[in-house]
Write a structure and sequence with these properties.
mainly alpha, homodimer, globular, disordered N terminus, DNA-binding, disordered C terminus
Chain lengths: ~180, ~180
DNA sequence: GCGGATAATCTACTCACTAGACTATCCACA
DNA sequence: TGTGGATAGTCTAGTGAGTAGATTATCCGC
């Protein structure tokens, strides 16, 4: 507990564990750490994107709700919550705010009077399109260092990973609602 | 406010805003939304990665602190906090826990007795290497759908975006500490 | 050696999130 | 057709994570 790693004193040189095989292929460097990159990129995106959707009640999550609700058939609150991995309580007050602004309405489902269908209004579609336009600029700024082909490639790869990750989460989800 | 978008009723077909030019190039679809992909991927990674570093005090952040402290010259707590975009108060109790486990020590900086240098111990290096090995498996699982070349490509692109985003944040940061 | 700045710590507060209770409704089955 | 268990949505109360601000010790320019 008192013993200081010799490597820690070895300033300029990348330190290594002494008695143990290091993960030889991966360099001991934050800049090449996938988790770190994800954290930084997500954080940077969140900062700029939050500004882009600040006009929407609920901010980024309000945007997601509108996006989910506007594409595909009308769905219940719970269905949206599951799709977006949002807690159903969160969904309730998120929809409260979006409905208060007139961006969507809750319509009783004729086939199941317990459920409410979430329907985006004209105003909601309009607000969503404006947000998407601003978001596009924020994304462009985030990816400014990549040339167009690289940007497309990054998007495609990310979307593929997201799609399978999302599917896997929902397969093993006959039980609990996360977040 | 009562008016429901006609598009919202139009089930199978991707709805469009009525009176307004849509962002023609971007499809109105969550699956091709960069923010959504980032959210899903980050979330999936966080879930699996948190398990990989559960043995470390502070979890993912403890891991980041060790990674940052072990590579490069010894630094003060504040320097580490800035590098990792962590609040300095968080850094204090994070280091408390890591030090209590004997993974690092706080050494008074001989050149500035206000500051403490963070030094990773042998035990800390060992724990870090074990965590990295488990993390490697978690990452492989997350990226399992991509072939090796695509995995490398995604990592490279993400790291490039992260690097510039991180730099930009620190350029305009003569003022406040975030998170 | 005086005064403003800085590293680290500690305290107290705020706010986001969620578990769980509750109501209305559904559906399977007798 | 009525009964019991499950489900959609809402509401409330409690918890915990994060941070601003005060505090102490030290630095450094003048």
């Amino acid at each position: 507990m008192r013993t200081i790693s010799a490597a820690a004193y070895d300033h300029g040189v990348t330190p290594r564990a002494s008695g143990r095989k290091p993960p030889a292929d991966e360099p001991l460097d934050l800049d090449s750490d996938l988790g770190w990159a994800l954290r930084v990129v997500s954080g940077a995106f969140r900062r700029t994107a939050t500004g882009s959707v600040a006009a929407l009640p609920g901010g980024p999550r309000g945007y997601l709700v509108l996006m989910a609700a506007v594409s595909g058939p009308p769905r219940s609150q719970l269905a949206l919550a599951q799709q977006l991995t949002l807690n159903k309580t969160v969904m309730t007050y998120l929809l409260d705010d979006l409905e208060a602004e007139g961006l969507l309405t809750r319509q009783p489902d004729p086939a199941d009077r317990r459920a409410r269908q979430v329907l985006v209004t004209e105003k909601g579609t309009h607000a969503l399109n404006e947000a998407r336009e601003r978001l596009g600029k924020a994304e462009a700024q985030l990816l400014a260092d990549l040339d167009p082909a690289e940007q497309r490639h990054l998007r495609t790869l990310l979307e593929r990973v997201a799609r399978t990750a999302h599917r896997e989460e929902h397969e093993s989800e006959d039980c609990r609602l996360p977040e």
